[in-house]
Design a protein that fits this description.
The chain is built from 3 helices and 4 strands; from the N terminus they run αββββαα. It is α+β, with helices and mostly antiparallel strands.
Amino acid sequence: MASGSAIRGTRVGSGPMSLAERGQPAPRHRVHYWCANGHETEAAFSAEVLEPETWDCPRCGLPAGQDREHPPDRQRTEPYKTHLAYVKERRSDAEGELILAEALARLRQRRAG
């Protein structure tokens, strides 16, 4: 049966490294974002990069912007489209009838011959 020592397997002095051992952290700046539900998100970015205009809210998933008074609108989700819906966007009914007639004629020719 093991004893109740919580530091078993560690060495004396093996705590976290000091700042001098790790080196200096990269300079950062913090940006606040607000979503349409009023949630505030704070994100840290490197000082070398330009922060994005929008950020996804981790609480509700809505897009969040940097303006508290005018957050971005909710994104409109497009309904699921079937393959037939996409085909109907590209072809008219007359074109579809013509393609179907050609395919049926080829099929009938193969079966007859």
